[in-house]
Design brief:
202 residues, alpha/beta, 26% helix, globular
Length: 202
């Protein structure tokens, strides 16, 4: 089987140098922490954890985070921060859309990753199965856009999402108490791109 291309191989080392990217994740993290109460007994999964921008913001509030990303280069950057993390951290290099993790979590967070996954309903059903009863999701992604957000090929399947459809997909997967809200706007020279956060529970 041919290994999947690492679209972030040449970006990982400089990934956190972009101020707008860091600010966007801060906005997402703030919104997650306002909407969901975590505790130091909880174990979370960060789906598409990258260099750990979101992981590091949530880490002080939980016991453990399992960071899942298919990019070797991004995982290496995160791994270098391991000793500085305020919670336990596991890093798993995996394409979760096509593989399984035999673990249960109290919550799943994700920032700007789901548009890289082709079958959203299947992913949400997988998330549902991976959560304990009462476990939460907090998933941030792009509003529907014209395809201009990504100026290079990073394995994109969706040019953002219609919020109502995104919420309905989560509902179809079994999630309840769903809420979706604008939490950030990424400004680029060629446009502004709203970012939403979907929260819900099993």
């Amino acid at each position: 089987m041919t290994p999947k291309k690492d679209y972030f191989e040449h970006k990982a080392q400089r990934y956190e140098e972009e101020v707008k990217r860091v600010d966007n994740v801060q906005n997402i993290a703030d919104a997650i922490l306002q909407n969901i109460s975590y505790s130091k007994t909880m174990e979370l999964m960060d789906f598409g954890s990258g260099t750990g921008l979101l992981t590091s913001k949530v880490a002080p509030f939980v016991k453990k985070i399992t960071a899942v990303d298919m990019s070797k280069a991004m995982n290496e950057v995160l791994s270098a921060k391991l000793k500085s993390f305020p919670c336990e951290l596991d890093i798993i290099e995996l394409d979760l859309a096509n593989n399984e993790i035999n673990q249960k979590f109290h919550g799943i967070v994700s920032s700007m990753t789901i548009h890289h996954v082709e079958d959203i309903l299947a992913l949400f059903k997988k998330f549902y199965a991976m959560l304990v009863e009462g476990g939460t999701i907090a998933l941030a992604d792009l509003d529907k856009e014209d395809g201009s957000f990504h100026q290079e090929d990073t394995g994109v399947f969706h040019f953002g999402f219609d919020r109502d459809e995104f919420l309905q997909t989560a509902k179809e997967a079994g999630f309840k108490n769903l809420n979706i809200q604008l939490v950030s706007v990424v400004s680029k020279p060629y446009g502004d791109y709203p970012i939403f956060l979907l929260t819900g529970e099993k």
